[in-house]
Amino acid sequence: MLSFKIHNSFLDLSDDVDQFIGQKLLWNLDFLKAMEKSQSIGKDSGWDPRAICIYDTNNLIGFVPMFIKHHSYGEYVFDWSWAEAYNQLGLAYFPKLFIGLPFTPVNSNKIITQKDTLKKDIIKFIENFIEKENLSSAHYVFSENNDSINDIFRNKNWSNRKTIQYLWRNKEYKDFDHFLSILKHDKRKKIKQDRKKISSFNLSFQIIEYDQITTDVIDFFYQCYSMTYHQHGSIPYIKKEFFDEFFVKHSDRVVIFCGMIGGQRVGSSFCLKLGDSLYGRYWGAIEYIPALHFELSYYQGIEYCIRNKIEKFYAGIQGEHKLSRGFEPLFSDSFHFLKDERLKKAVSDFAKREGNLHQQYLNELESRVPFKD
What we know:
By secondary structure, this protein is of the alpha+beta class. It folds into two domains: 2-164 and 332-367, 3-Layer(aba) Sandwich (Aminopeptidase); 171-310, Aminopeptidase (3-Layer(aba) Sandwich), CATH 3.40.630.30. The protein has helices at residues 15-21, 29-37, 80-88, 118-132, 148-155, 176-181, 185-199, 215-231, 240-249, 292-308, 341-367, and strands at residues 2-7, 47-56, 59-69, 96-99, 112-113, 137-140, 159-169, 203-209, 254-261, 264-274, 277-285, 312-317, 328-338. Strands 1, 2, 3, 4, 5, 6, 7, 8, 9, 10, 11, 12 and 13 form a 13-stranded mixed beta sheet that branches. The longest helix is centred in the last third of the chain and has 27 residues, at 341-367. The radius of gyration is 21 Å and the shape is globular.
């Protein structure tokens, strides 16, 4: 018999859940637990953990990580205008239900099941859950490309938003010069100019992974990560304790690139790797050096992928400048269910108009890809 159980903390979840999720996704139960242990989520963060465990008798057959959100920070699918529309009607947009990974705009499956036929039941449960909990809406963000769940959401009339991401593809390059050789002249020139600026500072670069990820490396990375936020007048989303735990426990998934001058680190970036893909996440520097951002966030990652025969390097959302650094644009889907019928229709219409505009923009970006004809 099918049953659903809601948990209010990831820390309460058993090893059975860990084994059910497995290690084939970019995220795992350790990721969620480290987020909560560090208080990057939970407590007073505005991210209240919820998780659905689905059972057939006593057998775990489904899992969904979720959050009751009291704001829209750290999601990267921007809905502030929707919150304003709710307020204008005298309605509360927050709290809402968020189904995604905290601070991680990466395409990934978040509805884990043994059978695809179970997914319709889970979505129906989620729709009933927001009614029962008096939540305004549900948001499933950065869905896995080609996941069967996408068609189910569309058939159930969840609004479909499209976000533009950027992806570098390894076309069996022998080395970085080989990669440069297939770029158009102006794009190749831009990258060479970036790297020339770097060379004038006598920078060297260090790749840190596995057991080389020590406490002092994590301390320096977090200093750089925090600096990026402070320079924009905000505080870091993720607490240091998350990196202390996750970087060490899952060092096989972590790659840290450091820029050094005279043996002293001056900047760093952090990527996650899994299977045939590398995912760029955060970067920062303790002093300003022209083009260091491009080097640590893009070029070092590209070289790493070439050397290690990694097929894809995801550079995240937004940032048209990524196009001229060898990345290509692609769509990422998110799906949204709003309880109020008036706003449900308004958001659906908005998503369609926005999607058409994004399609035009994607077509324009694709016409400007940096590669030779």
